[in-house]
Design brief:
The protein is of the alpha/beta class and 329 residues long. The protein has one domain: Alpha/Beta hydrolase fold, catalytic domain (Rossmann fold), CATH 3.40.50. The protein is 27% helix and 20% strand. It has a 9-stranded mixed β-sheet with strand order 1-2-5-8-6-9-10-11-12, sandwiched between helices. The chain has a 3-stranded antiparallel β-sheet with strand order 3-4-7. Strand 9, helix 7 and strand 10 form a beta-alpha-beta unit. The radius of gyration is 18 Å and the shape is globular. The protein starts with a helix and ends in a 5-residue tail after the last helix.
């Protein structure tokens, strides 16, 4: 196995990005109310010399603070061409790792409500959490860029399991919304060769040992999909073959990892049908799965917007499920 220092470096940085509001609006992005600041983080380089290709965007990669409340962060990373993998290390690692792929309709990656805010719930349980900011497809310019980064991230985690105190047989993925589609792509397409190997880490399996999906986009069927996510990923007029290839419920096999799904029945953005289609595919393939459909929660509830609702129980339900399948001690 490669030594961690051979292909990753620690970067501690503070990045302040100020974007002119009119330029952001002209490019189709929401105008930031203030300069967005990416706090100091420990960052693992995903690719030794950077990704070989990325989609092109009218503005450079940037972090926008969308919250009007100074006490609440709601940052979104836009125009992503430089993927980032950040680690949250528990005080007492128990050997389990969780790769988190936040959502954002494949137009952005949100890093607070679906990553930073949930990480403590898992690190408190001894889980080492990795947050992935993946490259965006750029309206189908590079459709497999997100999957390339996700495969690579899981392989790096597994390659350096000893360095992190991780059991390489207990590495899972948790994805939200469009990031749920990406996580389900990884779980069903871990053997797809979407990039050329760059080092010995790429000889390892990219198959997650368990899968968790929060209000995920699953199907590209226009009747049930999230239209913006579909357009960003496979374009405005995809062929029937492309629709089938990126509808992950159609890719489930007996080798798909066991899964935990949660969704709200009143989700007006990503219909609950997405989770039900994936669950049904798992059931037909003989893959054990657990699904929770909450009566209320809307879309993107994570923790902040689930406060006071039964949907707020999902982290505890997920941790209990992880124990039941022996992915937690």
């Amino acid at each position: 196995m490669p030594c961690l220092n051979n292909f990753r470096r620690w970067v501690v940085r503070s990045v302040a990005v100020t974007v002119l509001g009119t330029a952001a609006i002209a490019a189709g992005y929401p105008a930031p109310s203030t300069a967005a600041v990416l706090e100091d983080r420990q960052e693992i380089a995903l690719w030794p010399i950077g990704p070989l290709a990325s989609a092109q965007f009218p503005l450079p990669q940037q972090v926008l603070e969308r919250s009007k409340d100074p006490a609440i962060k709601d940052r979104a990373v836009l125009a992503i061409t430089k993927p980032e993998l950040l680690v949250y290390r528990p005080a007492a690692p128990n050997g389990t790792a969780l790769l988190v792929t936040p959502g954002g309709a494949y137009q952005r990656v949100v890093i607070d409500k679906e990553a930073d805010e949930i990480a403590p719930r898992f690190t408190d349980a001894g889980v080492t959490v990795f947050r992935l900011v993946y490259r965006l497809p750029g309206k189908a310019q590079l459709t497999d860029a997100p999957l390339m980064d996700t495969q690579r991230a899981l392989r790096l985690i597994r390659a350096n399991a000893a360095e992190w105190g991780i059991d390489p047989a207990r590495v899972g993925v948790l994805g939200f919304s469009a990031g749920g589609h990406l996580a389900s792509q990884l779980a069903t397409g871990y053997e797809r060769k979407v990039y050329e190997p760059v080092d010995s880490a790429d000889q390892l399996s990219a198959r997650p040992d368990f899968l968790a999906l929060g209000y995920p986009v699953i199907t590209m069927d226009e009747r049930f999909t999230h239209a913006v996510s579909r357009q960003e990923l496979i374009g405005e007029s995809p062929s029937s073959e492309l629709i089938a290839a990126y509808s992950t419920e159609r890719q489930v096999t007996a080798s798909t990892p066991q899964a935990f799904l949660f969704h709200a029945n009143d989700d007006a953005d990503v219909p609950v049908t997405n989770s039900l289609l994936f669950y049904d595919a798992l059931r037909k393939a003989g893959v054990p799965a657990e699904v929770h459909i909450f009566r209320q929660g809307g879309h993107g509830f994570s923790l902040r917007f689930a406060a006071g609702l039964p949907a707020a129980q999902w982290p505890d339900l997920m941790l209990n499920w992880m124990r039941s399948i022996r992915m937690l001690p």
